[in-house]
Amino acid sequence: MKFCLRLMVLLLLIGQTIQAQRKVTVSGHVVDDNSSETIIGATIVSSGHGTVSNAFGFYSITLPQGDAVLSYSYVGYGKQVKRITLSADTTINIRLIPDASIDEVVVKGVRTDAGIQTTGMGSLDVPLAAIEHTPALLGETDVIRTVALTPGVQQGSIGSAFYVRGGSGDENLVLLDGSPIYKVDHLFGFFSIFTPEAVKKVTFYKSSFPARYNGRTSSVLDIRTKDGDMQNYHATVSVGLLTSRFNIEGPIVKDRTSFTLSARSTYIGLFMRAFSPSDSKFAYWFYDINAKVNHKFSENDRIYASLYNGRDKYHDEYTDDYYSNYETIYEDYGSHMSWGNTLGTLRWNHVFSNRLFSNTTASYNHYRMSLRNYDNTKSSSGFDDVSAKCGSEIIDWGLSADFDYHPQPQHTLKFGANYLYHDFEPQTTSTSNKNKYSSDDIVVDTSFHSIANAIYAHELSLYAEDDIIVGEQLHICPSIAWTMFKVQGKTYVQWQPRFSMRYVITDDWVAKASYTRMTQFVHLLTSSPIAMPTDLWVPITKDIKPEVANQISVGGYFTGFDGWELSAEAYYKELDNVIEYKDGMSFMGFTASWDQMVSMGKGYNKGVEFMARRNVGRATGWVTYTLAKADRKFSRDSGVNNGERFPFTYDRRHCVNVVASYRLSDSWTLDASWQFASGALSTISTTQTEILDPDGYKRKVDYVPHRNNYRLPPNHLLCFSASNTRKRKHYERIWNISIYNLYNSMNPAFVYVTHEDDDGNNFNKPKLTKVTVLPIIPSATLTLKF
Amino acid sequence: MKKLIYIFWSFVAIVLLSCEHDISLPSGGAIGVLCINGYLHAGESAHYISVSKTDYDGFSTDVYGAEAKMYVNDQLVGTSVYHSDLNNKLYFYHNISSGDKVRFEVRYKDQLATYEGIVPQAPTGIECEGSVADYSYNSDGNRENYFNSARLMLKFTDSGHANNYYRIACGYRDSIVMPFTYNTNDTVYYFYYDVRWKGISSGYRNYDYQTDKYIDTTYTTYSNVSEPNSEFYYQEAPSLTDEESSVEMEDFDFMVPSIENKYRIMSNKRFRNSSCNMVIYKTIDSYAFNMKYNYREAYYNLSNEQCEAISPRLFLDAVVRVEAIDADQYYFLKVLNALESDYYSDYSELTGAVRIPSNVSGGTGNIFLSAYGDVKVSILTDYKVSIVYSNDDTIYDY
Question: Per the CB < 8 Å rule, is A746 touching B21?
Answer without folding.
Answer: yes
